[in-house]
Amino acid sequence: MGMTVDAITVGGDHIVLLGVKGGPAIRPGSQMPTAQLVVLGGQRIVVDAGLGVTRALCDQGVHLATLQTIVITHLHSDHYLELGPLLHTAWTAGLKTQVTVYGPAGLGRYWQAFLDAMRDDIALRIMDEGRVDLASLVQIRVLDAAHDVDLGDVCMRAMRNDHPPLVDSFALRFDGGGGTLCLSGDTAYLPALAEFARGVDLLVHEALLPSGVDALVAATGNGDDRLRQHLLRSHTAADDVGRIAQDAGVGCLALTHFVPDGLAGFTDDDFIALTRKTWGGPLIIGKDGMRIDLKRPNTTLSEQENGGA
Ligand SMILES: [Zn+2]
Ligand SMILES: [Zn+2]
């Protein structure tokens, strides 16, 4: 295709945390819902497509027309609300090659419904602008824990995690290029994840601050106790995240999917203090747009623990 190699592929294997907020709502001062860009072994893989993913990829220098692989870990909206708009925008940005989207059963229905919702616009652009049919460019594949996926020189493995009431919810592991990386996805404390993440250079794990749950629920204003119960039974408290990192012997732990995020009275220091009860190794508090190199990931550590931004 003669696509230009853009800045993001220069340099070593890394991940960019495009959105680190847990949950779908955004408020003044909060970060953006979940998305990541994995750059490993020459492959670029978008993991999750929460609100803001399209803009965030552009901000990283990624030409949307070069997208090839997207993975959706589970069907909570903070992980796939912007999948359709991402693909549609890539199409209008010049996408002409196949994009493969791996995700839980049910993602195909979302994609078909998105195409249907946008069918007038899509038909118009095909007729009026000479574009190829968007539907022909996107292939949805069901992600499961039984089959490894070869992405060039990178092996992607999925492990069913523990995120009730969803059943199809996955942690991911990538081995290839010069590095290894594990993403927890959304999960309750799952000791078996330590085996799945064994020895990786970098574990990116979701993080819950139990002491912040009541304030978050109050800010959200739901009528009963169900949101509170969901948060406590479906996510991992930061001290348990540290246990996973310790048991897995990972090179570095980065926290993401913060619950709460951007809520008055709760800061990075609260997450650091709770994680430090169980994990003494390199620790990174994820931020929107943060790049973490797999082989020298702890450059931001001292900065944070000395009270920097
Ligand atoms: Zn989530
Ligand atoms: Zn979730």
UniProtKB/TrEMBL annotation:
It comes from the Bacteria. Residues 33-235 form the Metallo-beta-lactamase domain. Signal peptide: none annotated. Keywords: Hydrolase. SUPFAM superfamilies: Metallo-hydrolase/oxidoreductase. The keyword Hydrolase applies. This is MBL fold metallo-hydrolase. It comes from Loktanella gaetbuli.
